[in-house]
Amino acid sequence: MTSRTILIVDDDDDLRGTLVEQLSLYEEFDVLQESTAAKGVAAARGGLIDLLIMDVGLPDMDGREAVKILRKGGYKAPIIMLTGHDTDSDTILGLEAGANDYVTKPFRFAVLLARIRAQLRQHEQSEDATFSVGPYTFKPSQKLLLDPRGGKVRLTEKEASIIKYLYRADQKVVTRDVLLEEVWG
Predict the structure, then answer these.
(1) How many domains does the chain have?
(2) CATH number of the domain that 135 lies in?
């Protein structure tokens, strides 16, 4: 399975450490961590992050402001905000800042995990999705493969559909007949 990179930005060392430890138990995730909004924004901009978990109460900046900065800069990956406040106005402010989901502390890890997976599934279906395929970055909505040196390979609709189907099949064997049926109907 292709692992997804999750960035956790929270100043609570214990919570952040626990989340990193718990998510790292699942082979589907690579987990990165930062303790301030500035470092989190820099890491999100600098790498291929599939999902960002951002705390609201960070020491250097409100997490919602950090989310606004990322979204204004074109950041497309899903963002889940964590907060100790559970009022409707807090939730509204977080979602309007650009978060995709809002989780109130304390929370059950299983619930957060389900929300992470749901956000990743939803994003994978969106026009903004990008996938790592071997050394390439695949942008299905643009029908484009980018190589590590920045070279571009334009794909036909069928080529893009084949890559997308094989990617979603994970590492399972896909027969020619199944691929023909799925791509050509």
Answers:
(1) 2
(2) 1.10.10.10
pLDDT in tens, the chain (185 residues): 568 899 999 999 999 999 999 999 998 899 999 999 999 999 999 877 999 999 999 999 999 999 999 999 988 899 999 998 888 888 888 899 999 999 999 999 999 999 999 999 888 777 667 777 888 888 887 888 888 888 899 999 889 888 888 877 767 888 888 888 888 87
Kindly give, in sequence order, each residue whose CB lies less than 8 Å from that of residue 136, ignoring residues fewer than 6 positions away.
145, 146, 147, 148, 153
CA atoms of 60 and 53, how far apart (whole Å): 16
Identity of residue 179: L
111-118 long-range contacts, CB within 8 A, separation 24+: 112/19, 112/80, 113/22, 113/23, 113/26, 115/80, 116/6, 116/23, 116/51, 116/53, 116/80
Does residue 179 share a domain with residue 102? Answer: no
Question: Could you tell me which of 43, 41, 35, 36 has the C-alpha nearest to residue 16?
Answer: 35
Domain that holds residue 149: 131-184
Where is the domain boundary, 109, 125, 141? 125
What are residue 101's DSSP bridge partners? 80
What is the Cα–Cα distance from 181 to 158, expressed in whole angstroms? 12
